[in-house]
Amino acid sequence: MIRNKSILLVFRLVVGGVFIWAGLLKILDPLEFAQNIANYRVFSRDLSLLAAIVLPWLEILCGVLVIFGIFRSASSLLLSSLLAAFLVLITVTIFRGLDVDCGCFGSLGRHVDYSLLLADIVLLYLTLSIFVSSLSRRSATS
Q1: Listed range (82-86, 89-93, 99-103) with the worst mean pLDDT
Q2: How far is it, in rounded angstroms, from Cα 66 to Cα 112?
């Protein structure tokens, strides 16, 4: 477990920055993001549209909370959960042989491939490190 506050601050800035940036880009064109979600062929059009409206705001909110250390446990756990779900979705998409845009960064997105899988694993490590450090910090003050 990482205990160095400077390293954890860098993790929080990176994770928060990535999710704020991704959320902002998706908000610019929610219909394109909804189509990207629908292209995975897992969710209905209605659910894709709902996710395209809700997810970017959730990413931005959690990104801001992680950066400022507010509700750090909850926000980092939520981001970890989103990343874990996305990792499953990416893995299934790769095995199904679908050639789709991930939709991660709006129109700046990239195709689903193993490099995207690796990038999300790294982000998951960062978010889980933030989560575990917030738990250990809380238990140390108890």
Answers
A1: 99-103
A2: 26
| pTM, entire model | 0.91
Distance between CA atoms of 99 and 40, rounded to whole angstroms?
A: 9
Contact 117, 91 (CB under 8 A): yes
- In the structure encoding, which two tokens stand for residue 94, read together? 């790769």
pLDDT the model gives residue 3: 85
The domain ranges of the chain are: 5-136
Nearest to 59 by CA among 10, 18, 112, 102: 18
Asked whether the beta carbons of 77 and 139 are under 8 A apart, the reply is no
Q: How far is CA 8 from CA 22, 60, 132, in A?
A: 21, 19, 11
